[in-house]
Amino acid sequence: MFNYILSQYHLQEKDWLYSDPSPVQINRHFELNVKLTQPATQCTSCQGTKFHRHGTTPHPRRVQLTEYMGLPCFLMITIERYRCATCGMTQSSQIPEQLVLKGHKDSTLLKAQIIRRLTEKESIKDASHDLNVSSHSFYRLLNQMSSKDAFTKLPQVLCLDEFKATKDCTGSMAFIAMDGKSHEIVTVLDDRRLESLVKYFLKFPRKVRMRVKYLVMDMNYSYDKLIKRCFPCAQLITDRFHVVQQMTKAFNVLRIQVMKGFDTKSPEYRHLKYYWKHLLKNYDNLSDTPFYSCSLRKWTSSRKLVEQLINYSPILYQGWQVLQLASGHFRNKDAKSFFTLIASLNTEVLPETFVKKYQFLLRKKASIKLALELDYSNGCLEGMNNKIKAIKRVAYGFRTFRNFKKRILLMNKTLTN
Question: pLDDT tens across 65-114, in order?
């Protein structure tokens, strides 16, 4: 096995002595005893080049390697000492840094495995158990890593969003920014409030901030103000997902209002409560394949089911037609027809709450129109937020935002030492 170690760590065989190349099992771990005989080249005191052997170190150096046969494996290195023939100073052979760094106990390959496990969606406790190391080895590496931002460049397309972080955050929600093209995280901040964001982005030189052409975000009001104060040359793009979400929420509120108008034991109430997802689908994509509905107590299809539900109330029918038409225009990227339909809505036919939720989109007309013309969206950032939620769940939460931020950057593989 030691020959394999020499090749993996790029070590010189002539500098090592060993009696048995295979490790010996002791209790619940393996040990491999070797001797480092690399001679000294120059005295650190008198710069002399002649040395005599002067015994070995009293205790062997213990270096943990990657696991062997499912158990921890340690390299027990006995280091030979040398005495300068000129001044009498003694010094020991230096262990190569490609094997282990000075003052560290984990080998470089073991550290590489630890870093790889930090990029995955799993808790440190589970990862340390699999690698047969303590969790402190993971935290030591995290503490050595820097998560400081470089205020030298910004992408042309900047995606912005927020997520729930740790309790020690300054604000209730954390802020995250990502490059819309390369999908690399630009920064993760512990406060999403406008004052903190302005203070952070103003640290970038004006020339760098003027390179940002588009800001992709949801319909958060504070982010809209960020453009005017920090990015004078940028245009706002409203994420398409949030536009569709606004339309479906408006229809769901209308459906619940109509549903509550029926008796809770009536079949209309039950059908509108159980089959609401069919009403949100595109009518042209509804299936004609029959299935047996226990609630209806008959065979039906998705299309027939929708036709039955919308006939329960004329208001529900009108709201469903608006949703279908608006979704069709939005899907076909027909901004003119989309906004004309919204502007024509009135409260004489539909409830005021339904109309207001749709006409709210008129305030974002320019940014929504730009979203239909360009291909940029917050999909990459929403996917990253999903990973963040997953790692929080498997780790049972994080105590400090500092370590949480480093794990996020490692998952995105943009963290630099």
Answer: 988 888 889 999 888 888 887 787 787 778 888 888 888 889 999 999 99
* Mean pLDDT of the 269-297 span: 91
Tokens of 348: 């004489």
Please tell me the total number of residues recorded for the chain in this structure.
Answer: 417
Q: Which residue has the tokens 């004052």?
A: 195
Tell me which residue of 277, 298, 296 sits closest to 286, measured CA to CA.
277
Alpha carbons 176 and 338: distance in angstroms, whole number: 31
Half-sphere exposure of residue 411: CA atoms within 13 angstroms, side-chain side? 22
pLDDT of 40 above 80: no
8 A C-beta contact, residue 9 and residue 98: yes
Residue where the block lists tokens 């398409």: 240
Bridge partners for 83 per DSSP = 52, 90
Question: Is pLDDT at 341 greater than 70 in this prediction?
Answer: yes
Distance of CA 140 to the CA centre of its chain: 21
Please tell me the distance from the alpha carbon of residue 399 to that of residue 260, in angstroms, as a whole number: 44
Please give the structure tokens belonging to residue 389: 């939620």
* Whether pLDDT at 217 is above 70: yes
User: For residues 122 and 391, what is the distance between their CA atoms, to the nearest angstrom?
Assistant: 6
Residue 295 has pLDDT above 90, yes or no: no
Q: What b/e sequence results for 115-146 when a residue is b if at least 16 CB atoms lie within 10 Å of its CB, and e otherwise?
A: eebbeebeebeebbeebbbeeebbeebbeeee
Inter-residue contact 249 to 270 (CB < 8 Å) = no
End-to-end CA distance of the chain: 32
- Looking at residue 147, its pLDDT comes to 79
Tokens of 151: 């205020």
Round to whole Å and give the CA distance between 109 and 42. Answer: 30
Q: How many of the other CB atoms lie within 10 Å of CB of 260?
A: 11
Q: Strand 61-68 and strand 24-26: pairing?
A: unpaired
pLDDT at site 171: 79
Please list, in sequence order, all residues whose beta carbon lies within 8 angstroms of the beta carbon of residue 39, skipping any fewer than 6 positions away.
51, 82, 93
* Whether the Cβ atoms of residue 322 and residue 316 lie closer than 8 Å to each other: no
* Contact present, 61 and 54 (Cβ < 8 Å): no
> CA of 94: how far to CAs of 11, 61, 158, 276, 380, in Å?
13, 11, 48, 71, 47
Tell me the sheet residues that pair with 177.
160, 187
DSSP collapsed to 3 states, 170-233: CCCCEEEEEECCCCCEEEEECCCCHHHHHHHHCCCCHHHHCCCCEEEECCCHHHHHHHHHHCCC
